[in-house]
C-alpha cells in the first residue's frame, strides 16, 4: 500500500519530534544517576503517563480491539484489579524502594535474601525482556511492512535502529518524555477511529449498543464452539471464571508493581515519594479508561461490519484470519488521509513506548545489579555510563536479531525455547517479593529452596502444555492459573523451610 502524502507528513512529524527529544535529552546524560533515573526529578503526572505508555504495547493496541471484536470483554476483567494493586503498591511497596535511593528493583532482593538472589531476579528480568523486545519489534515491523511494502527484514532493522537511537542517547529522560507524548498520540489515534465509525453508522452510538447487546458483545464471556458463553463466578482452578480472573488480575498487577524494573525505575525517578504516589494514581485513573476505550473500539468495529459487511472482516470474525488485524484493516480501508497517518503513529507509539522502556531497563539492571556490583566495582562513574551505552547497543542488536529470527524461522522452536526460559526464571517472583516485604521469615537458603521448587513446578506445567508428559502426569488444574499457583508455592516453600528446615536468617530489612 502507498500512503497519501498527508499521512507521510504526519508520520514524519511524529518521528521527527521523537528523535528531537532523544538528542535534546542526550545533553543531560553526564552521569549514571541522570541516565538511569533522570536525577530523580520527574513530576508525578509525567511518571503516571509514562507508566501508561509503557504498559500499552503494540500487542495491547491490536489485541484489545481484536478480542472485543471476535469475542467479548473477558480480557478486560483482570484490569479491574489495577486500583487494588496500585493502593497496595503505593503504601507498602513504594516506601521500601524509595527508602534507600534504589535504582533497581533487585537491590531489595540482596538486602533481604543476599546477592545471589539479587542476581537471579536481575537475570530473570533481562531474559524475559529480551524475548518481549524481539516479539514486539517483529509485530511492529509487520505493520511497517504493510505501510511501506519494504521487505520484513528491512522493516525490522529500520524500526529497531530508530527506537534504539533515541533510547540510547537520551536515557531515561528521553524514555519517559517520549512515553508521555506517545500516550497522547495513542489516545488520539483511537478516538479518531471511533469518531469515524460513529459518523458512518446510520444511528451512531445507538447502533453500536443495540448490535452489541443483541450479540452479547458487552458481556464477560468467552467463545466456546463458536458461541459466546458468559463465564461463571465460581472459585475454581478447573476453568476460567469471573472471580478467578479477578484474582489473576491482582496477581499480575502486584507482580508488575513489585518486581518489574520498568515500573520500579519510575518510582525511583520521581522527585519525591509523594510525586511517585501521584504518578501511580494518574496511571490508574488513565489506564482503565484507555483500556476500556480500546475494548469498546473493538465492539464498535463489530457493529460497523455488521452494518457494512466485508469478506475480510468476516474471516477475522470466523478465525480464518487473525482478529488482531481488524483495526489495521479498518484504518487502511476506511479512514481519510491524515487520519490514517495519525492512527498509524498511534500504533507505532504503542510499540515504541514498550521497546524504549525495556532497552533502558535492561541497561540499568545489567550495570547496577551485575557489572558494578560484581564484575567491576569501584570504577569511575563515567566508566559505568559508557558501559551502559554499550549494553544498550548490544541489547538493541539482540532485539533486532531476535525479531529477524522470528520472521524467518519456519518453526518457532528457538522462540518457544526463549519464551519457556523466561517463564521458568520469572515464575514465582511475586511470592518472593511478598514474603520479603511482609515477613521476616526466610534467608538465602530458604529463598533458593523456594526458587528451586517453583522452577520444578513451572517446568512441569510447561511440559504438560506442550504435550511432553504422559497422561497420568497432566495438570489437575487449568494451565491459565499456573502463574498464580507458582507464586503461592514460592511463598509457602520459603516460609516453611525458614520455619522448620534452615536456621533463622539475619535479615537486613523487614
List keywords for this structure.
510 residues; mainly alpha; Sodium/glucose cotransporter; two-stranded antiparallel sheet
Topology:
Blueprint: H1 5-26, H2 32-37, H3 44-55, H4 58-70, H5 82-99, H6 107-113, H7 115-148, H8 152-200, H9 205-214, E1 221-224, E2 227-230, H10 242-259, H11 261-269, H12 273-307, H13 311-318, H14 326-334, H15 339-375, H16 381-408, H17 413-426, H18 429-438, H19 444-465, H20 482-500
Antiparallel strand pairs: 1-2
Describe this structure in words.
This protein is an all-alpha fold. It has 2 domains: 5-407, Sodium/glucose cotransporter; 427-510, no CATH class. 75% of the residues lie in helices and 2% in strands. The chain is built from 20 helices and 2 strands. The protein has helices at 5-26, 32-37, 44-55, 58-70, 82-99, 107-113, 115-148, 152-200, 205-214, 242-259, 261-269, 273-307, 311-318, 326-334, 339-375, 381-408, 413-426, 429-438, 444-465, 482-500, and strands at 221-224, 227-230. A two-stranded antiparallel sheet has the order 1-2. A hairpin with a 2-residue loop joins strand 1 and strand 2 (227-230). The longest helix is centred in the middle third of the chain and has 49 residues, at 152-200. The termini are far apart. 49% of the residues are buried. The model is unreliable at 411-415 (pLDDT under 50).
Amino acid at each position: 500500500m502507498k500512503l497519501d502524502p498527508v499521512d507521510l507528513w504526519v508520520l514524519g512529524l511524529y518521528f521527527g519530534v521523537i528523535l528531537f527529544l532523544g538528542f535534546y535529552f542526550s545533553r543531560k546524560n553526564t552521569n549514571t544517576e541522570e541516565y538511569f533515573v533522570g536525577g530523580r526529578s520527574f513530576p508525578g503526572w509525567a511518571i503516571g503517563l509514562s507508566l501508561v505508555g509503557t504498559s500499552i504495547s503494540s500487542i495491547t493496541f491490536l489485541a484489545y480491539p481484536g478480542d472485543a471484536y471476535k469475542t467479548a470483554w473477558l480480557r478486560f476483567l483482570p484490569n479491574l484489579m489495577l486500583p487494588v494493586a496500585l493502593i497496595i503498591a503505593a503504601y507498602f511497596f513504594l516506601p521500601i524502594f524509595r527508602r534507600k535511593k534504589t535504582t533497581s528493583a533487585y537491590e531489595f532482593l540482596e538486602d533481604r535474601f543476599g546477592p545471589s538472589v539479587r542476581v537471579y531476579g536481575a537475570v530473570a528480568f533481562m531474559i524475559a525482556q529480551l524475548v518481549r523486545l524481539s516479539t514486539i519489534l517483529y509485530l511492529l515491523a509487520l505493520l511497517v511492512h504493510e505501510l511501506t511494502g519494504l521487505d520484513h527484514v528491512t522493516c525490522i532493522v529500520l524500526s529497531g535502529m530508530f527506537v534504539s537511537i533515541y533510547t540510547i542517547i537520551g536515557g531515561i529522560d528521553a524514555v519517559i518524555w517520549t512515553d508521555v507524548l506517545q500516550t497522547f498520540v495513542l489516545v488520539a489515534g483511537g478516538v479518531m477511529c471511533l469518531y469515524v465509525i460513529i459518523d458512518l453508522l446510520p444511528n451512531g452510538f445507538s447502533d453500536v449498543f443495540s448490535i452489541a447487546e443483541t450479540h452479547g458483545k458487552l458481556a464477560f464471556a468467552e467463545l466456546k464452539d463458536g458461541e459466546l458463553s458468559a463465564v461463571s463466578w465460581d472459585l475454581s482452578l478447573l476453568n476460567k471464571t469471573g472471580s478467578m480472573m479477578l484474582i489473576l488480575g491482582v496477581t499480575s498487577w502486584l507482580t508488575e508493581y513489585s518486581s518489574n524494573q520498568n515500573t520500579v525505575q519510575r518510582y525511583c525517578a520521581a522527585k519525591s515519594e509523594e510525586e511517585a504516589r501521584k504518578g501511580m494514581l494518574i496511571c490508574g485513573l488513565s489506564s482503565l479508561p484507555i483500556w476500556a476505550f480500546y475494548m469498546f473500539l473493538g465492539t464498535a468495529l463489530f457493529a460497523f461490519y455488521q452494518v457494512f459487511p466485508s469478506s475480510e472482516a468476516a474471516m477475522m470474525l470466523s478465525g480464518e484470519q487473525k482478529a488482531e488485524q481488524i483495526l489495521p484493516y479498518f484504518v487502511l480501508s476506511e479512514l481519510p488521509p491524515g487520519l490514517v497517518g495519525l492512527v498509524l503513529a498511534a500504533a507505532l507509539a504503542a510499540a515504541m513506548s514498550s521497546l524504549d522502556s525495556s532497552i533502558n531497563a535492561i541497561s540499568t539492571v545489567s550495570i547496577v545489579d551485575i557489572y558494578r556490583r560484581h564484575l567491576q566495582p569501584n570504577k569511575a562513574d563515567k566508566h559505568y555510563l559508557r558501559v551502559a551505552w554499550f549494553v544498550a547497543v548490544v541489547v538493541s542488536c539482540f532485539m533486532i536479531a531476535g525479531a529477524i529470527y522470528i520472521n524467518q524461522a519456519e518453526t518457532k522452536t528457538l522462540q518457544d525455547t526463549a519464551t519457556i526460559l523466561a517463564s521458568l526464571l520469572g515464575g514465582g517472583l511475586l511470592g518472593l517479593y511478598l514474603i520479603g516485604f511482609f515477613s521476616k521469615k526466610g534467608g538465602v537458603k530458604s529463598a533458593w529452596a523456594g526458587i528451586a521448587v517453583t522452577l520444578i513446578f513451572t517446568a512441569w506445567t510447561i511440559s504438560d502444555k506442550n504435550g511432553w508428559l504422559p497422561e497420568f502426569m497432566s495438570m489437575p488444574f487449568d494451565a491459565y492459573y499456573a502463574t498464580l499457583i507458582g507464586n503461592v508455592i514460592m511463598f509457602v516453600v520459603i516460609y516453611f523451610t525458614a520455619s522448620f528446615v534452615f536456621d533463622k536468617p539475619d535479615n537486613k530489612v523487614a
